[in-house]
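User: Can you recover a sequence for this backbone? Please restate the input before giving your answer.

Assistant: Of course. Working from this structure:
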């Protein structure tokens, strides 16, 4: 009986706290795009990340991207992963962290 209450409580937390936070983030992005407001990534700050292996956290994924940042053009970042290249929109990036020296190859 106690397990049923615990499961019910967890479901309520998920629907009342977790999902609305995520939806609020997406609605903010949609509103900015409708208004035509574009945020530019600070190019000067990003220059120090070019050519280094970084861990990039995105808003819409539970895990991030790890790879070498090759170039930055406009609001797009080109990342070289193990065997593929990837373009990432700067609006979807939450944070970027430079990996320790042992990962820099």
């Amino acid at each position: 009986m106690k397990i049923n209450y615990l499961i019910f409580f967890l479901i309520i937390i998920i629907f009342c706290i977790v999902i609305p936070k995520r939806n609020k983030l997406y609605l903010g992005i949609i509103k900015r795009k409708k208004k035509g407001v574009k945020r530019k990534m600070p190019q000067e700050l990003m220059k120090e990340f070019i050519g280094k292996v970084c861990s990039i956290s995105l808003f819409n994924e539970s895990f991030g991207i790890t790879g070498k940042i090759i170039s930055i053009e406009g609001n797009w970042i080109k990342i070289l992963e193990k065997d593929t290249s990837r373009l990432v929109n700067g609006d979807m990036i939450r944070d970027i962290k430079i990996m320790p020296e042992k990962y820099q190859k």
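That completes the design. The helical segments are 2-35, 43-46.
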